[in-house]
Amino acid sequence: MNGITQSTALWYASRATGVVSLLLLTAVVLLGVLVNRQGRLPGLPRFVVTGLHRNLSLLGVAFVAIHVITAILDPYVTIRIVAIVIPFASAYKAFWIGLGAISLDVVLALILTSLARARMSRRLWRSLHWLSYLAWVSALVHSLGSSNDLHSGLLLYMAIACTLAVIAAVAWRVTHAGRDIPREERAAATLAMMSPARAPRTRGTPRGDAGPRVQGGSVPRGSAPGDRAPENVR
Amino acid sequence: MTYGTTVPYPAPYPGPQDSYPGHPGPAGTGTEAPGRDLPRLLPVHRAVPVDLRTHLSRYGAPPYLGSPGKLIPVLKAAGLTGRGGAAFPVYRKLQAVADARTRPVVIGNGAEGEPASDKDKSLLWISPHLVLDGLQLAAEAVGSQAVALYVHRNARLQERLRAAVAERAAAQIDLAPVEIIDAPPRFLAGEESALAARISGQPAMPRFKPPRVFEQGVVGRPTLVHNVETLAHMGLIARYGPAWFRSAGTRDEPGSMLCTLHQSDGGRDVVETELGTPLRDLLRLDGTQAVLSGGYHGAWLPAADAARMTLSNEDLQAAGAFVGAGVLVALPADRCGIAETARVARYLALESAGQCGPCFNGLPRIAAALDEVASPRPDPRAVTDMIRWAGLVEGRGACHHPDGTTRFVRSALHVFREEIRNHSAGRCVDPGRQPFLPLPADAALDAADWS
Amino acid sequence: MKKELRVDPTLCSGHGLCAELLPELVTLDEWGYPIVARGPVPRSLDRHVRRAVTDCPALALKLLPAS
């Protein structure tokens, strides 16, 4: 190879797979929000959303593995193997690499617990899965700090786009969750939909657009009690 | 024989012990088993609740059998079935919990979420010690030290029960301490799994089965749940034996039971009667168009049919109804049966826990359709829609709330079909829709209502 | 041992994947909730049933011993 050493190749490979990993993790987070809100990708069956969410996360781990291995092997920078999973143990750019390690640790935990989902406590799985946002933020900041790649040009726009997408998805999730009807009020809400004049007045904040998506108007499904944020469930 | 006739309560006197193979009779009281005469659970002078001293002088202390399991064959011979509505053989529940290997829990169910039923509250108010005896005997039979009484939310009643428990503890009559636990005023609060959830510290909402509560109930432990009236009968059977219990009732449905009667003139009373009593001996049927048997998960019967039936599952199940917890309502001829059914259906819909899609979608729609049918010149699609929705909800909830509601509604569509035709023509027997069936004023609206 | 497919309605929130992955046994009612065929699961559908059970986002599908 003319002018490109093996070392440079490893460094480029690490940076490139790093970018792909960030993109995949962003996609997984967006898909996760879609699963939670029972959304669909236009024209595609529902199982594609959950399927992509799972498969892209596995693909993402594969890319992270290459990203990490090439970085270790590259003699230009000194990153010990343990620094992959133990945060801030690297000699080179300890802080930024450490954030990457945190992200990887969390992603591995999420994947392992999701594989064992049927065998563990529902509440525990759910609480751990909330850490996915931490993993994403950590990965983003790691990307911004570990090299200058994302500071200019196309990659900068990509980083901004990913950030805006996640912010938008979270905002969407939070607003709609706020409109979910708690289970104790669901029957009353259905009754209100059928015969508004005779429905009982619901206590607390009146819920406006119930947002039924099904023909004929069914009660907004909301999520099953196990899926709701802990503070809304008694 | 119904309460109200002058039946002198049998006074204790020295005499031959009533005996049954393996059953020595009530220890140390020298009391012969009373005759078959009723009442057994409610004393003659009903206005005065029975205190501990009177209770002990009348019955003696609870006749503990000495080790777990011994009561079970006695109950099997007696043929006692649950008095909470399901009529499940009592000995089988006890056997199932006694067979479990982890420490069982015993709960007396006095939640009585059915608005038309008063019998459990009355029994707990008037004869709490009969219930508490049965609770202790059941606990001994399954080897449990974790015992509680789950009681309808009424401060005076709960206070009274706490005092009764404390009195018994002081007199050292009880083997296990009894906790009094408050039940939220929900229709479903007394459902077995909802009860187990509430006592485990969660809202009183039903759970999916399996596992059933006798396998995993309160905090995952095998839980024996019995209606308070069932426990009262247990306490008496332990003293007087299966033969005595069977001296009332029929061969297949032995014993006596408490019924809440709603007469067509508005009179409302709790009586004790034996199974097999003709319904016309309990309800005054003249001026009545229909009878509701089994409460709001029961079924309507035309008055003419009811006049030929007895209080037995043999008769009632053939007509699509059942004995249940003994709620019997006589609907006057000058009321609209459909409007009454619509009112109750709305209540039942709002009492949905909101957990299961078919229930919280189907029951309110059925209620709205009934409301439509109860109005003048209803949309003809209302009945067909209602029947379709009934088919969609049956069997698809975690509990039997959808099934019971559709049983009630379907029976109304059949029994009041004449009235439905009237409505299509713009006529109604009671356009003013005066309410008759009892319903609570408030609907459950938020999480606090279920805790 | 014969197994039966059942849905825990308190967990089900009507995602609807089961009806897509297992149309032989599951249809959706007019409100989007699954109606599951009663009775033991045919051996030929084993793989699909297991996938539906694993993929349900609410973990509401259960394979239980046939009653």
Query: How much of the polypeptide of chain A forms β-strand, as a percent range?
Result: under 5%
Q: State the helix count of chain A.
A: 7
Helix content of chain C: 10-25%
Secondary-structure class of chain A: mainly alpha
Helix-strand string of chain C: EHEEHE
Figure out the total of helices of chain C.
2
Topology:
The complex is a heterotrimer of chains A (234), B (451) and C (67).
Chain A (H helix, E strand, L loop, with lengths): L5 H31 L9 H28 L20 H22 L6 H8 L2 H15 L6 H27 L3 H12 L40
Helix pairs in contact in A: 1-2, 1-5, 1-6, 2-3, 3-5
Chain B lengths: L51 H8 L11 H8 L11 H10 L5 E6 L8 H8 L1 H15 L3 E7 L2 H16 L7 E6 L8 H8 L23 E5 H19 L9 E7 L5 E7 L13 E6 L5 E4 H4 L6 H6 L8 E6 L4 H14 L6 H17 L7 H13 L7 H15 L1 H8 L27
Parallel strand pairs in B: 1-2, 1-4, 2-3, 5-9
Antiparallel strand pairs in B: 5-6, 7-8, 7-9
Helix pairs in contact in B: 2-3, 2-8, 5-8, 11-12, 11-14, 12-13, 12-14, 13-14
Chain C lengths: L2 E5 L9 H5 L4 E3 L5 E3 L9 H10 L5 E5 L2
Antiparallel strand pairs in C: 1-4, 2-3
What does this structure look like?
The complex is a heterotrimer of chains A (234), B (451) and C (67). With 234 residues, chain A is mainly alpha-helical. Chain A has two domains: 6-179; 183-232, no CATH class. Chain A has helices at residues 6-36, 46-73, 94-115, 122-129, 132-146, 153-179, 183-194. In chain A, helix 1 (6-36) packs parallel to helix 6. In chain A, 31% of the residues are buried. Chain B is an alpha/beta fold and 451 residues long. Chain B folds into three domains: 52-246, Rossmann fold; 256-332, Ubiquitin-like (UB roll) (Roll); 337-435, Up-down Bundle (de novo design (two linked rop proteins)). Chain B contains 15 helices and nine strands. Chain B has helices at residues 52-59, 71-78, 90-99, 119-126, 128-142, 155-170, 192-199, 228-246, 303-306, 313-318, 337-350, 357-373, 381-393, 401-415, 417-424, and strands at residues 105-110, 146-152, 178-183, 223-227, 256-262, 268-274, 288-293, 299-302, 327-332. In chain B, helix 2 packs antiparallel against helix 3 (90-99) and helix 11 packs antiparallel against helix 14 (401-415). The longest helix of chain B is centred in the middle third of the chain and has 19 residues, at 228-246. Chain B is globular. Chain B starts with 51 loop residues before the first helix and ends in a 27-residue tail after the last helix. Chain C has a single domain, classed as 2-Layer Sandwich (Alpha-Beta Plaits), CATH 3.30.70. Chain C has helices at 17-21, 46-55, and strands at residues 3-7, 26-28, 34-36, 61-65. In chain C, the strands form two sheets. Chain C has a two-stranded antiparallel ribbon. In chain C, strand 2 (26-28) and strand 3 (34-36) form a beta hairpin. The chains are: A mainly alpha (234), B alpha/beta (451), C alpha+beta (67). Chain A binds chain C through residues 35-36, 38, 45-47, 50-51, 117-118, 122, 214, 216, 218-219, 221-227, and chain C through 10-17, 20-21, 30-32, 53-55, 57-60.
